[in-house]
């Protein structure tokens, strides 16, 4: 998942961020507004971890999110398979 997508859809992703880092408050999420650097800084501050560790956690979080483009590709290929199976054999 691209961080630009997360930032652009922050309201949808904020809940998942809250699940991952439960000590973050709604006010924290409002201040962060999808900015990766702000998220990293708050995680460091609240959890008392290094910048490197915060970045590793964010990277793992980012990779754990489903990639919308591959879901659409997969759906498209499944859709065409279904159409092929309904076509009469010649």
Name the shape in a single word: globular
Beta-strand content bin: under 5%
State the low-pLDDT regions, or none. Answer: 70-85
> Distance N terminus to C terminus?
43 Å
Please write the string of helix (H) and strand (E) elements. HHHHHH
**Helix amount, in percent?**
over 70%
Chain-averaged pLDDT: 83
- Main β sheet profile: none
Count of extended strands: 0
Count of DSSP-assigned helices: 6
- Structural class of the secondary structure composition? mainly alpha
Report Rg.
19 Å
SSE layout and pairing:
Elements: H1 3-8, H2 10-20, H3 26-32, H4 36-47, H5 51-64, H6 68-86
Helix pairs in contact: 3-4, 4-5
Descriptive report:
With 90 residues, this protein is mainly α. 77% of the residues lie in helices and 0% in strands. It has helices at 3-8, 10-20, 26-32, 36-47, 51-64, 68-86. Helix 4 (36-47) packs across helix 5.
Provide tags for this entry.
0% strand; mainly alpha; 90 residues; globular
Briefly characterize the structure.
This protein is mainly alpha-helical and about 90 residues long.
């Amino acid at each position: 998942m691209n961080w630009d997508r997360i930032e652009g859809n922050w309201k949808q992703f904020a809940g998942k961020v809250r699940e991952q880092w439960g000590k973050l408050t709604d006010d924290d999420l409002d201040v962060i507004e999808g900015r990766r650097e702000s998220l990293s800084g708050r995680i460091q501050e609240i959890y008392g971890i290094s910048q490197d560790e915060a970045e590793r956690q964010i990277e793992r979080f980012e990779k754990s999110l489903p990639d919308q483009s591959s879901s659409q590709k997969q759906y498209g290929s499944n859709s065409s398979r279904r159409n092929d199976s309904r076509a009469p054999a010649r």
